[in-house]
Write a structure and sequence with these properties.
It is a single chain. By secondary structure, the protein is mainly beta. Among the domains are: 250-425, Jelly Rolls; 429-580, Jelly Rolls (Sandwich); 1141-1199, no CATH class. It starts with a strand and ends with a helix. The chain contains 11 helices and 88 strands. A hairpin with a 2-residue loop joins strand 51 and strand 52.
Length: 1200
């Protein structure tokens, strides 16, 4: 038992009650804050909705930090440990590719046990981890790793781990089960230690108050006094088998072998190890480790199966390391052996270890039979170790003529062995009795008898005998070595006649196999005129210890031969199975068959062992079956893997020794049984009366979940958004709430394990893509309550809407684009959407750049991008007739970015980067006369990005502008009435503004964006108010929306309480990757994010739009006539230079003043000298505006 002090601070007391989930504390520790979605005033918009168009397939409000990680599979480069509660996912830790969290189990109120392979935050999962939600600390439970855990049960303060593993508690080992006490923080083996080698625990179940049930594949307990029946090896009528006497391979006779050696060798004792003295001894001399070699040449080639090495009994001569090289392969042999320290199989080649005898003796005292003997090489070779020797099996079955044993190191100063024994798979019984002589006199050998014919050596150095005769029937009997009763295969070897030139004289022999009681088991003729060595299978079946193989001459094959020759070589016996071999396969008692009812409370374990639950599988289920189980409705459901057998055991009351049994077999193959909210889930592959099924449910009756023409092997159960989900094979998701498989890409899940506690804290390992609002056409609608609507948005088959224009209360124009599968070019068009009648307007495949509605003429004006080498186009459609009324082609590469309307003059003001009929960049287009002219005498040029009317009399323009050929103008405000530029922003190194919006209705505040930054002007200066992005930002557009919340955090006094919204692509250090943010003129906050489609990959597509479907003609149309706009170049007001018009006005004013002065003098003179009754004063016209309208100053210039 081991104490784990590191766990003292890791767990809250198991009895502590925590109300509610740990979402708040987890979010706080990960610096996660939840965002409030702004409520908008959409009363002016049609249907009171805000539309969002862009290249996306899913849309979500940004609710909390890290939300984007769980919205798209592409976000997941691997698995994570994920926390979920109340709609919020939190990534607790990322997992490496080789990390697999296979089990998650709640522990107490705020912790979970994690089990698997790999590491979580540098903690080894094989040691079983505790993850504490309150502290986010991870603690390792066990001091030793567990290789494979299949199930974990928390029973009060005890935690049981079951699976396939060996666990060491000090110098004592156990298999497949270990327990941990959460109160004392100690780990220990259970009183019965475990279930033995090669056992497996599949499930651990709590049976009410009646203890714990272990279910799996096992047949014994490792502590004998827990066994309820006597050992098979000591059962009635059978004496205990001595492991050292059991052998499945034949001992090779080395009596006539040749041995070359270093040092001293006593061959007789070397091949027949006995006594306490070494038969081979090499005294060490010189520096370095003690070494020695010997070379054994066998008389006839064999195929070795294993070697038994009796290490020296002398403390100073015991060999520590060795290797074996064989000929003719001349290669180092790969060997398999049992490691006495662990009882597990191990392999070696160039450095094979031997253990000192003292260690072998001590280890054998605490090891069972299963730790000391194993069947290897497809159960054809039995290898063992005892206090006297260790055995090593040859991995490769190759012919051997010489064996070279090299001692590489010693535990002392010399090298020594008591002896060596070599084994082969076949038991050979030679007719040449010399070859049958054993290494030791007491060892069993074959016996033979022959007729009186003279038998002599065959070919030189051959192993067979032959006899030459003219008449008679020579005969020979051979009794091969059959060491134990069992199943054998007997082969008869016949030498080839080409080796001795006797092919013409060979004949036919009859071979008979006789049992010990004289019964004939087989009889057949065998022809001996084979050219090469051959063997003929004689028999495969059960044999006792005394069979006889009889060969007798029948007749010559060549009747004309003048003599006859019969040959006889050997009979080999190969073990198939032995009657006593199960003692090795099942080295302990068979008192169990996959089920053990354990009572840890102190009750008599033997009573528990005698329970019906333990006994039922022994009598009613296949031996050595692998069982699975689950408890449902107070019943135990016990299934046999790979079959359809299910037993239902129900206790009468609480006593599991008094039970009722029913069979609920199904047609098919079971892999596992698991509980879920409505009953049980059975994984596997089944054939029901209704058809095939990949998984079954049981709620009192069996039913099918689904069929996918495949078996299910695993299941993970979790509840998300109130729906219980069953994840099969980490691939198929079944929603029990709607009884359907989820096939939508909106929710994707990968998880090897998951668990939730009573506080609704869910932990799982894997990844999730949880999309609430998918859109196949890249459009959603937002209502005033913050709801996201994916229906009722413009939907064009195979296309995506990217721009809209309000036409009237029932009609809207939408621009769209599409990308064909065989093209990387976006093509576009326009659709007019009206109730019950949608129709398209052609753009000849070009995508739309800008649209404006001319209400008075009922025209839709469209500017398009260049397509496939053509230039941009200005198109006018009469919506009354749906006919194109004008199409103006621009110069190559020319584009129109913005359009506004002089409504009284049927004239458009278009801005962009183009040349047309002598006008460039900012031009007037009369769509009645189809004429082009410069605006303000060509005062403004450069690339115009946006035009907009403010307060009906001002035109604002942004872009990369020039005024009177002076460049670097980003913004200008043109007073249409006074025909002059009243404001401008000049910035030599500035990035051109893409779009601008007036804030409020005063005309002295604006917001603008240049693709990278957001700018704000409030009557004094332009300042950047760009949100923090680390430079990773792309702004596609800017919008102003009104808030429907008088108590918002916006403390500025502003009509309408506007909110600035930018959309595009932002990678915020605080919020991650998002697609829109909003600004209340004090703080930026995230708004929404999207999951992009694949349309933009390698294709230049139009950018999206945040669209309020309402009348914006006040921004795009002015009622001022064009005649108020001077066609002469003007200087801007900030330069304080007088324009020509003002010079004229001043001159006119001075002239009027002079005339007035002369008039006054004249009146005075007239008054003084004239006739007072004759004077009638007149009222002059001195109103300046009236004078200007009567005679514009420009028309007076010709008189100056």
């Amino acid at each position: 038992m081991r104490l784990h002090m590191g766990l003292v601070a890791a767990l809250a007391p198991l009895g502590e009650v925590v109300r509610g989930s740990h979402l708040e504390s987890v979010a706080q520790r990960f610096n996660i804050t939840h965002q409030q979605t702004p409520r908008l005033d959409l009363s002016a918009a049609r249907d009171q909705r805000l539309l969002v168009f862009d290249d996306f397939q899913a849309f979500e409000y940004y609710n909390y930090k890290g939300q984007q990680l769980f919205a798209s599979p592409e976000q997941h480069k691997g698995s994570s440990l994920i926390y979920y509660s109340e709609g919020t996912y939190v990534q607790l830790a990322t997992l490496e590719d080789d990390t697999l969290v296979r089990h998650i189990v709640p522990l107490g109120s705020d912790s979970f046990i994690l089990s698997g392979t790999g590491k979580v935050r540098d903690h080894q999962l094989e040691r079983q981890l505790i993850y504490n939600l309150s502290t986010l600390e991870i603690t390792e439970i066990l001091p030793e790793p567990l290789e494979s855990v299949n199930d974990i049960l928390v029973d009060g303060d005890l935690v049981y781990f079951g699976g396939e593993f060996t666990y060491f508690d000090g110098n004592v080992s156990g298999h497949s089960v270990v327990q941990w006490n959460a109160t004392s923080r100690t780990t220990s083996l259970l009183p019965f230690r475990g279930f033995g080698r090669d056992s497996s625990v599949n499930n651990i179940l709590k049976l009410n108050e009646s203890g714990v049930l272990f279910v799996g594949k096992f047949s014994n307990l490792e502590v004998d006094n827990y066994a309820e029946t006597a050992s098979v090896m000591a059962s009635a009528g059978q004496t205990q088998l001595n492991i050292s006497s059991l052998e499945t391979n034949a001992l090779t006779s080395l009596r006539y072998s040749t041995i070359e050696y270093d040092g001293n060798l006593d061959k007789d004792r070397f091949i027949c190890p006995s006594g306490d003295d070494d038969s081979w001894f090499v005294q060490h001399s010189g520096d370095g480790p003690a070494r020695g070699e010997l070379n054994i040449k066998v008389l006839h080639g064999i195929i070795p199966s294993k070697i038994r090495i009796h290490n020296s009994k002398k403390d100073g001569s015991e060999i520590k390391l060795f290797r074996i090289i064989t000929s003719p392969s001349q290669s180092i042999m790969n060997m398999t052996y049992i490691d006495p320290k662990t009882g597990e199989l191990a392999t070696c080649d160039a450095w094979c270890p031997l253990m000192p005898r003292s260690n072998l003796t001590a280890q054998a005292a605490q090891s069972g039979l299963g730790d000391m003997a194993r069947l290897v090489n497809d159960e054809n070779v039995l290898i063992k170790w005892t206090p006297d020797y260790q055995e090593f099996a040859f991995v490769n079955q190759i012919p051997l003529e010489e064996l070279r044993f090299i001692a590489l190191d010693s535990y002392g100063n010399n090298v020594g062995l008591v002896g060596v024994e070599l084994f082969q798979t076949e038991y050979d019984a030679y007719v040449n009795s010399t070859l049958n002589q054993p290494n030791c006199e007491q060892q069993q050998t074959s016996r033979l008898s022959a007729s009186a014919n003279t038998w002599q050596q065959g070919a030189a150095d051959a192993s067979y005998l032959s006899t030459t005769f003219l008449d008679g029937n020579p005969m020979v009997n051979v009794k091969p070595v059959i060491p134990y009763p069992g199943t054998y295969t007997l082969n008869l070897y016949t030498p080839g006649c080409e080796d001795d030139g006797t092919c013409d004289f060979r004949g036919i022999v009859n071979v008979t196999l006789l049992a010990s009681n004289g019964t004939t088991l087989m009889s057949r003729w065998i022809y001996q005129n084979n050219n090469r060595l051959k063997y003929d299978p004689l028999y495969t079946g059960h044999l006792d210890e005394s069979p006889t193989v009889r060969m007798e001459w029948v007749s010559p094959i060549n009747s004309a031969s003048n003599r006859n020759i019969m040959v006889a070589d050997r009979v080999s016996a190969i073990i198939g199975s032995l009657d006593d071999l199960d003692v090795i396969r099942h080295s302990h008692d068979k008192s169990l068959n996959g089920v053990f009812h354990y009572i840890p409370s102190g009750s008599s374990v033997s009573n528990g062992r005698q329970s019906y639950i333990n006994k039922y599988p022994q009598a009613n289920m296949p031996e050595s079956a692998s069982l699975v189980a689950a408890v449902y409705d107070g019943k135990l459901f016990l299934g046999v893997q790979s079959t359809g057998e299910i037993a239902v055991i129900k206790p009468k009351g609480n006593d599991w020794n008094d039970v009722e049994l029913t069979k609920e077999d199904v047609s098919g193959s079971i892999n596992g049984i698991s509980p879920y909210s409505q009953g049980l889930v059975i994984t596997g592959r089944f054939n029901m009366s209704t058809g095939p099924s990949s998984a079954l449910r049981y709620d009192g009756n069996f039913g099918s979940f689904f069929d996918l023409d495949a078996e299910t092997t695993s299941i993970v159960n979790m509840t998300i958004d109130g729906s219980e989900l069953l994840l099969f094979n980490n691939k198929f998701i079944y929603n029990t709430s709607i009884s359907e498989l989820l096939t939508s890409s909106m929710f994707q899940l990968s998880a090897l394990s998951a668990a939730a506690n009573s506080n609704n804290d869910l932990l799982f390992a894997g990844w999730v893509a949880d999309i609430k609002h998918g859109s196949t056409h890249g459009a959603v609608a937002l209502d005033a309550d913050g709801n996201i609507l994916t229906s009722g948005t413009p939907n064009i088959s195979g296309a995506r809407v990217h721009r809209g224009v309000y036409l009237n209360d029932t009609a809207t124009a939408y621009a769209y684009y599409s990308i064909s599968s065989d093209s990387n070019v976006a093509t576009g068009g326009v659709v007019i959407e009206t109730p019950g009648n949608n129709y398209n307007l052609s753009t000849n495949g070009a995508t739309v750049r800008e649209m404006i509605y001319v209400k008075k003429a009922n025209f839709l004006v469209i500017s398009t991008d260049a397509v496939e080498g053509t230039s941009g186009t200005l198109i006018l459609y009469d919506l009354g007739t749906s006919q194109e009324v004008a199409r103006e082609q621009l110069n190559q590469g020319g584009t129109i970015n913005s359009i506004v309307l002089f409504g009284e003059d049927n004239t458009l003001l278009v801005g962009g980067s183009f040349e047309k009929n002598g006008c460039r960049d900012l031009c007037l287009y009369n769509f009645v006369e189809h004429s082009w002219s410069a605006f303000a005498g060509g005062l403004i040029s450069g690339e115009v990005k946006q035009l907009q009317f403010v307060k009906n009399r001002n035109l604002v323009a942004v872009g990369s502008l020039s005024v009177q050929s002076k460049p670097n103008i980003l913004f200008l405000n043109f007073d249409l009435v006074r025909s002059r530029i009243v404001e401008q922003l000049e910035q030599p190194n500035g990035r051109a503004f893409n779009s601008l919006l007036p804030v409020g209705d005063t005309g002295d505040e604006y917001v603008a964006e240049d693709g990278k930054q957001v700018w704000h002007f409030s009557g004094k200066e332009w300042k950047t108010v760009t949100p923090s992005s680390g430079g990773q930002i792309r702004i596609d557009g800017i919008s102003l929306v009104r808030l429907n919340n008088s108590g918002s955090q916006n403390k500025r006094s502003r009509v309408g309480n506007e909110l600035v919204v930018i959309h595009g692509q932002m990678n915020s250090p605080e919020y991650g990757e998002i697609n829109a943010m909003h600004y209340n003129f004090e703080n930026w906050e995230p708004y929404y994010f999207t999951i992009g489609s694949s349309a933009r990959e390698g294709v230049n597509v139009p950018r999206g739009q945040i669209f309020l479907n309402q009348d914006i003609s006040s921004q795009t149309t002015t009622s001022l006539p064009l005649e108020v706009v001077s066609d002469l170049p003007q200087e801007t007001e900030p330069k304080r230079k007088l324009a020509k018009g003002y010079v004229i006005l001043i001159a006119l004013g001075l002239a009027l003043a002079t005339i007035a002065l002369l008039g006054i003098i004249g009146v005075i003179l007239a008054y003084a000298f004239g006739d007072h009754n004759a004077y009638q004063p007149l009222k002059p016209r001195i109103n300046e505006d009236e004078m200007l309208k009567t005679v514009p100053p420009e028309k007076l210039m010709k008189f100056i």
